[in-house]
Design goal:
Blueprint (H helix, E strand, L loop, with lengths): L18 H7 L2 E4 L3 H13 L4 E4 L2 H7 L7 E5 L7 H11 L4 E6 L4 H9 L4 E4 L4 H16 L1
Parallel strand pairs: 1-2, 1-3, 3-4, 4-5
Amino acid sequence: MPNANSLNGSEDLDTKGSPLSASARDGIWLLDDDVSMLKALGRLMNSAGFIVEKFNHPAAFLARLEHGSCRVAILDVWMPDMNGLEVQACLRRDSPETRIIFISGRDDPLVRQTALDAGAVAFLAKPFDDENLVGLVREAQEAAAT
């Protein structure tokens, strides 16, 4: 359940500095309704040297676009209220430069293909290799910078 008092719908940001300085440096945003997965992703990205913003609700993630720049988005597919493919459509419209990496507990071939056809740079099934995800984020961040 999202925390209505938080800017991004997550109780534990694990970022350094203000949300604006974090997004300005790396622009890596994580969206997963599973708070334990979100925390684990945040720790993984932080340990790889990235500063991330974490969101556990799609509406909070999309609202943040009004005030920040998302270079790389790591999106869960299956969430209540709005799925990752719907978030991807909003990103394509409102932030077309954002590189999108999907993660999912269900590796549905049709969903995978739909996500990739709509411009996602990768689709990983949980559990995935941590080093693989970090490498994909580095590649996506470099591509977004060019």
